[in-house]
Design a protein that fits this description.
51% helix, 657 residues, 6-stranded antiparallel β-barrel, elongated, alpha+beta
Amino acid sequence: MLLAGCLPQQKGYLKRFDGTVIDRPESDPLVRGASPAVLTVEALDGRRRLLGFGTGFVVGPGTVATCLHVIESASLIQVRLPSGEIRNVSGVRGSDPLNDLVVLEFDDGPSSTLPLALRTSTPSIGESVTALAGHKHLRVHATRGKVLAVPEIGGGLLSKSIVLSVPVSPGFSGGPVLDALGNVLGITSEILTQGSESVLRAVPASELEPLLQGPSTPVIRWLELHPQPTPAASILVSQAEALGFSNLPRSLSLIAEALRQSPSFTRAWTRRAALLLALQRPLEAEACLRKVEELRPGLTGIRLERSACLVLAGRHAEGRLLAEELARENPGKPILQSWLAVARLGARKREEAIEAGAQACKLGPDQAACHLTYGVLLANVGCLPQAQRHLERATQIQGELGPAWMQLGLVQWRQGDTNSSRASLRRALECPNLRNPTSALYVLFLYDWGSGDSKAAMKAFGRFLEAARHPENAPGPDADPRFRAVLDRMRPKDWNSPQAHELLSKILVHHKAGEVAWPITEACVWTAPDNADCWTRLAVAANAYGDHERATVAARRALGLQSGHSFAHWALGVGQYALGDAKAGRTSIMNATVLNNSNRLAWEVLVAIELKEGRHDEAKRIWEGTPSISKTNSELKDLEDLIPDTRRLRSLAESLE
């Protein structure tokens, strides 16, 4: 990744972007109206020699916002006004190393310059934007392009980014990105490179709000509290960013050398965390973010990313506690409530997750991400009509939100609305921000296959194979080799066999890729209606999705084909108990253990039932007397949440609507 300013312009660089440079910005009404509030920010050393420069824009009387990397290594900071006058920066209102932002104060004197208005709502895909750079030779520079991607929840570091197709050159860093009405929707931060492709990253303007509310610190004191990196360390980090993710080992070695020279270099720590996340090492990334928090305590963004890393690493309880702490400290932020809902769901606190999701939608009724998260939560516990309503709201707010269209299509499919589901899934595939299209492609394949259109089915499945082979679309780093191995062994004609479906389903279920596993289990029973194993697998998947009515029907069908099927009895018992029939559920689970004494899953569910029914002595007797159950205290504690009370969760969700 390259910083948007501070690095030499490369030959032919602008051609990589699908945007235009405004040749005569003074004649453009939008640029002309905003240019008085656009300044140049300069970083100087102790001898007042120029180290680097960028752009800033006025956000209040004598207050300018810019990127933190613009003033790195500076001993003195100054701003150059549109008139050419130079003013020294006297204070720092606040800074955020994760989002690369800083708000500076300078002696503006009597000024009639109006600050630029900040836009807090999420932009739409394809929306036209204009990026401005500071006045060089008393002339503002401007370029125009479009929005390619928008912020999302729980996407890890850099997820809170607006990705733009806008050509920039050195000096644009820290400059405003304007919408069609002249409001600031983002701040130019850096250029993201992947191979030969380059796009611009902008930080959402909403991330400036906490900094504007902070107390002022004299700039000399701020520089003492936040030691600036050496110029060599700053160059090393810039080189690592220029590599992007194309050479992760080399990038990490450059960052390590930068940290050796400047151990308190917060931008280097956050960049190292992003690289470690790309290598699927979330615990090491969380340690880097914890270091940033030690250097700069109290940063909400850093703590939010730490919570995400803990959840990704499987430490759900710690991630949930940190998310709850953030939500308590910032009760009015819907994005934090949405993430709290995700963290609680990972920690098996489904009832509390639903409450947090509902609260997020109340706090942010016009935020698509909140409705998307809540819709997924509701679908997870089987509240399909309510889930559909919130997912539809998300697509209404942001028409090109691919994940919302895909989740809506899957919910419609589960409710049997074939035509609407097909339309929603196809709309999802048209959205440029749909990262993992495998679920949508596979369900479309099933639709075409079921309707007898084999040509369309094979075309859809070919796209599914192509998408599924990419590592980022695989269930996880450890599953990727096996996942691709299965796909490589299968040819389109092989997918008419239940064995192929069952093999891939086992891998996907094991790695919790439920969205993809569910349609494959459906395909099993379509292609092998007399196979008890296929019906059992469908029952297991239905229970995992919270659709316990369908699970009991599928399990009984399996038992009609093979009455002594232990796992079918187990799936039937889970469904019966979740639907409120505790006696029948317990009987079915006991039948499973009688038929197969080594069925560990059946024994564990039986223990969970005894615990929930208050028979703790019986639960302890089974636990201690069954060799196949793993004897860890954490597993015994987690068993209390093993079977969700679906009816109670549905009632709760309905009461919150």
